Amino acid sequence: MYKQKCGIVFITLLLSLLFLVMAMGYILSYSPGVFPDEFAHMAYVGNVMDRGFPNYSSGTILPGGKLNYLNHPALYYLIVGGLANFLDLQGMYAMIGRYVNMLISILIIIFTCRMLYSATKSKLSTFCGGAFLLVIPMFVVSGSAVSNDQINVLGCTLVLHGLLDIIETHKDNKSITYSVITICIGGIIAALSKATGSLAIVCLLISVCLFNFSKLSEVIKKITFRQWVIIISSLAIIAIYYLNIYVVYGRFYPAPQGNPALWFAVDHPGAKRLGLTEFIVNFYQANLVTLTIPYGHAAISDNDIRITVLKTILLMLVWMTIFVIVKKLSVTNSCFNLTFSFVIAFACFIITYLFTIRQLHINTGYLGAMQARYFFGFLPVFSLVIAKIIAIIKNKAVRVILFSLIVSGLITALYPPLIKFSELRAWKSLTIVEQPLYNTGYGYLTKGRRFEQVIEADSSTLIGVELMLATFARRNYGVLTLELSDQAGKVIASNTVRLETLKDNKYAWFDFHQAALTKNQKYNLILKCDECTQDNAITWWAVKKEYESTIFLLTKFGPGVGGIYPKGNAYVDGKDVGGAFAFRLYF
Length: 587
Hints:
Blueprint: H1 2-29, H2 38-51, E1 60-61, E2 66-67, H3 75-86, H4 93-120, H5 123-135, H6 137-142, H7 149-167, H8 177-191, H9 195-211, H10 213-221, H11 225-249, H12 260-267, H13 276-292, H14 304-330, H15 337-364, H16 379-392, H17 396-413, H18 415-418, H19 424-428, E3 432-435, E4 451-456, E5 461-470, E6 479-486, E7 491-498, E8 506-516, E9 522-528, E10 539-540, E11 542-543, E12 570-572, E13 575-576, E14 580-581, E15 583-586
Antiparallel strand pairs: 1-2, 3-15, 4-9, 4-12, 5-8, 5-10, 5-15, 6-7, 6-9, 11-14, 12-13
């Protein structure tokens, strides 16, 4: 037994360490604001630091100064803002928000592994089920971002852990106080973090009551007065919070302005409404994509092999889930009774989510609210499904195959967060500034043309620059020159590359040999090719300038519109075209 427990501790530490490696990779690779809704979450944290509570009436988002559109409960913002004030690190609140989510993610891993081992008594099952969390890219991204997604998952995990302990693994001579406290704390955390968390908890409790009524009745009879006090106090905390919010703001989930669906409806009043079948297909595809890739407000490097491995794991999970359902329906007193209840709770959640988004689409035409992150509170359920199925498999070959598949998923999951550190220049650089987006080009870079990007020095030394170039899927020949000049036009550094060495739609490296700069001063990157013709030329990818809809122009409403790279614009042949070219600066 001691060796088993040591093994579980080792597995938990290993998975936690792997998570930390991946999370730090994302944090060091992408600036605050890149991950979904980070600026909006950061704004509420800033409100807490300034006034003690999120400003749900007139809070604004920087950059842009638009009103905040998030309507999430305050728990995460109170924790991060309060911690920043307590540590007197207000200037680092974005990083504190990210580190808090890293800690929360480790707690999720710990409680998930504890739950899996108590249900299976198997180290292999615990490892495979726990590792499933890490192969889902947005679980790691959310644990690296300023976001309330992860604390919501923690709340759901605690509730699942407590329910499993009370109904399936509880021993008659053991007090259920720990389980009651776990469920109550989890319920409070989920309810005060996201509306989807509250929905997940409601679905779980209803499903568990319906399919485990006799067992639950026995448990309820054993609840002591002290335990009832804990339960009632927890419900009172949630009720008091929402009652206070409703009295102050007139809504249970207030926000200073409407959400992106409302903006879309105002800006696109005649948008097409999809039929039910087409909508369901769209819903499935959107959730599958957001379940299998890391995403945000910038392109995140990824690999097709990783996506294929993850889809294989998800397909395996589908068959495992079907087996759980069939086994429960065909066998009385199945070991999958509670797991089945959790799966049905997930199905109820998805159906509610589907038709809520469907009604939103009918009302506004909006199709953007389809993201797998909304049901991440159920990820530990599917960790449990994987663990339980592996625990009952007797065939060693099958167990080895499943283990190998999970390990492959873990290994390939390291690619998106760590790929930027695979090159030596990333290790030499103290600061990497990136503008990774591109959606347009400005034609062939031929003799006499100039593509120019204004940058700001984040340090006193520039090691080099990477530019995202397109070769038009052909082999070109000649010399490409990149110059670094000051605002007076004096060339400070220059480097060339051979056109024939370039790859289509890939970054090209220009070494400036640690050019000396003045920090916070503006400089120009000038790309030219004196040997290029239309039949023998490349182009530099760029992102267009954003234009604000006239409906929202000069108001605090609508989406924020700011510079993609706010420190400098793109110029083509001397003309300011706005937006920015795609580049990486290594300081």
